[in-house]
Amino acid sequence: MDVLVDFARTGRIGPLHCGMPLAEAEGLLGPGRPHPAIVMMGPDIDGYPYSWDGLRLDVTRRRVSGLCVDLHPGSTTKLPALVLPESTTYEATIQREELITALDDAGCGHEVNGVLTFGQQSSILTRPADVCAVFSLPGRDDHVPHRDRHHLRVMHKRADIV
User: Which of 48, 92, 138, 158 satisfies CB 3.0 to 4.6 Å to 142 for a cystine?
Assistant: First the structure.
């Protein structure tokens, strides 16, 4: 939870931030797993991610244009040691109320993201970092105890690279 709250407050995941060169990120994390489009079309194609298990970096002009932590409620997720040094995996089941409470306790402002709040999905934007957290009701294959509550699916930050 500390990694997610810090991301929400700062817009950074450890030393990773939007705008940094992909080469610098790979120097810190090791080589990422490029999206198949990058493999097929070459490293200069924009808008596709490099992945390190549950961490995803979107790339534009060989710079990090997005940071993303993917979660799957009812399971565990792995993050690189640079991001979560104490553990190789962590619990990926986080209820909306748990994250909101942790953000409030840390003094991290947030508001409803109306663009991504609809149907069985809800979303918030943190302030001032503009990190988006997206929640949804569990899917039928998600093994969670509270099926009527929204669970965190993804946290991401995007930046325009010009």
Answer: 138
